Amino acid sequence: MADWTRAQNSGAVEEILDRENKRMADSLASKVTRLKSDSDFTSMTGLLTGSMKRFSTMARSGRDNRKLLCGMALGLIVAFFILSYLLSRART
């Protein structure tokens, strides 16, 4: 009888420990996800900052670069509208 009671108690303890372990694993998984998104945001910020520095340097330089810059900006705007049109057609 005592062995049976110990077996029940050890089963209950194992169940409690298993639940606690799952809770802690879920908590750790959410922290890892949060850290990954922070890391992605940081790398994206660094990329955008570098791009803006290069863009500013190119805009401050001579007239030839301004023509190139305007052409690139116009090309990007046209590409954006073409992509948005294609995506809207793909959804319907």
UniProtKB/TrEMBL annotation:
Topology in membrane: Single-pass membrane protein
Major localization listed first in the record, in broad terms: membrane
Compartments, record wording: Membrane
Name of the molecule in the record: Bet1 golgi vesicular membrane trafficking protein like
Keyword terms, alphabetized: Membrane, Transmembrane, Transmembrane helix, Transport
Lineage, top ranks: Eukaryota, Metazoa, Chordata, Craniata, Vertebrata
GO cellular component entries: membrane
Segments crossing the lipid bilayer: 68-87
